[in-house]
Specification:
Layout (H helix, E strand, L loop, with lengths): L5 E7 L2 H12 L3 E7 L10 H16 L3 E10 L6 E2 L2 H16 L7 E11 L6 E11 L15 E3 L11 H7 L1 H16 L1
Parallel strand pairs: 1-2, 1-3
Antiparallel strand pairs: 3-4, 3-5, 5-6, 6-7
Helix pairs in contact: 1-5, 4-5
The chain binds inosinic acid (IMP).
Length: about 190
């Protein structure tokens, strides 16, 4: 493992995301400073627009380079629902009612997506997208992680994200994917 020599600030109110990001970026020698809250979350149908707006706002507010992440769960047979509205659905329904909604589906294939946006003051923001393909289990299982982790099984695995260690989830997750793309760019360009 490389020694940490570079820093980047991550604006998020989600401690789980922050811990996941810290671990992924440490593998590239990048240290994370956590800033509270990602700021304004605009309503949009795509995660990247949401992350780009918030990153621009955060770098103006904190006067430094920042990353912001927006993520969501997209169910194939529901044309991507709940997607950018995942947080709302999770908060209003909870996992049990969410699973009840899916009982009539023929396919439980789903994709987790993550958009990480990086913005430095007075510079146009960039975005790095990550994906994790998988399926929604028939019941919640596991205690690690957050949100939909207990019901999401990444492709090729019988375990949910909530049954995996942080390292295992990071290797397979949408967030691990987008953050690794960001880290490679950051080390070459900043
Ligand atoms: P946001 O990026 O904070 O808007 O997150 C959207 C919602 O998607 C979260 O509140 C979670 O319910 C869900 N979500 C996003 N990423 C993950 C993940 O890695 N595991 C489980 N749920 C997630």
């Amino acid at each position: 493992m490389q020694r940490s020599s570079r820093f980047v600030a991550f604006a998020t109110s989600n401690e789980h995301k922050s811990r996941e990001a810290e671990r992924v970026l440490s593998e590239f020698g990048i240290s994370l400073e956590r800033l509270p809250g990602k700021g304004t979350e605009i309503q949009a149908d795509d995660l990247s627009s949401i992350a780009l707006f918030a990153a621009k706002e955060a770098s103006r507010r904190y006067l430094k380079p920042v990353i912001v992440e927006d993520a969501g769960l997209f169910i194939d047979e529901l044309n991507g629902f709940p997607g950018p509205y995942s947080s709302y659905i999770y908060r209003t329904l909870g996992l049990e009612k969410f699973l009840q909604l899916l009982t009539s589906l023929r396919s439980r294939s789903a994709v987790f997506r993550s958009s990480v946006s990086y913005c430095a003051p007075n510079v146009e923001p960039l975005v790095f997208e990550g994906v994790s393909k998988g399926s929604i289990g028939s019941r919640a299982s596991g205690t690690y992680g957050f949100g939909f982790d207990p019901v999401f099984k990444p492709e090729g695995y019988e375990s949910t994200f909530a049954e995996m260690t942080l390292e295992q989830k990071n290797r397979l997750s949408h967030r691990g994917d987008s953050l690794r793309k960001f880290a490679r760019w950051f080390l070459q360009n900043e």
